[in-house]
Amino acid sequence: MKFTSLFLSAACMLGLAASGFAQNAQPKNESPKKPGILGYLDPETGSFRILPNPSKVTPDSPAVAPTTGKIVFNATIALNPGLSPTAKLICTATAATSEAANLVFFTDFGTVAATRSGATATCSITLPYGWTLATPTADFMSLGFSVSSSTGVALPIVGATSQQDFTLKVPPSGTTTTQVVALSI
């Protein structure tokens, strides 16, 4: 009985493996099938955008030197009198840019704890970046800064969030950009 069960199990496994290998079998007289057109659906326009074909990129095209720099966020946060004095305050900064023509996207971010002093809190975040942008003088960067509070991990959890966004031209390489942020939570 055990031998028969083992034999039938092995036959089933071989049958499944053979059918799996047959899925990719190609008749000898047919050329290999090519995948469809790679792309994405643009949510703003509803149109299909074709991704560039990597095989058509010339290997002799010059390498793009990265645009580098730092973005320094200095934040002052006015604290709501109703905010718990034990609430933890977390600051988060983001910097993002893209080149839609090349479908290249870059995002840098950082998170720190805020320092409380009476009715205010402060935090500073420095984001170093290195973006390989083909047209940095024409590109923009989106900056975001948020502060959130939380009373902890035990229920009930009470929290709040405040955010400020900015759009700036990408600065020349090697530049330190300082962004002053004033929020209340």
Textual characterization of the structure:
The chain is mainly β. It has a domain at 70-184: Immunoglobulin-like. It is 11% helix and 47% strand. The chain contains one helix and ten strands; from the N terminus they run αββββββββββ. It has one helix at residues 2-22; strands at residues 39-41, 48-50, 67-78, 88-99, 104-113, 115-117, 120-131, 140-150, 159-169, 175-184. The strands form three sheets. Strands 6-7-3-10 form a four-stranded mixed sheet, with no helix packed on it. The chain has a four-stranded antiparallel sheet with strand order 5-4-8-9, with no helix packed on it. Strands 1-2 form a two-stranded antiparallel ribbon. A hairpin with a 6-residue loop joins β1 (39-41) and β2 (48-50). It starts with a helix and ends with a strand. The mean pLDDT is 79.
| Rg over alpha carbons | 27 Å
Structural class, please?
Answer: mainly beta
Largest beta sheet: what is the strand line-up? 6-7-3-10
Percent range for helical residues?
10-25%
Kindly state the mean pLDDT as a whole number?
Answer: 79
The residue ranges in which pLDDT falls below 50 over 5 or more consecutive positions are none
CATH architecture of one domain: Sandwich
Q: What portion of the residues fall into strands of 2 or more residues?
A: over 45%
CATH topology of one domain: Immunoglobulin-like
Largest sheet: 4 strands, mixed
Order of helices and strands: HEEEEEEEEEE
What is the total tally of β strands? Answer: 10
How many DSSP helices? 1
How far apart the termini lie comes to 73 Å
Shape: elongated
The CATH class of one domain is identified as Mainly Beta
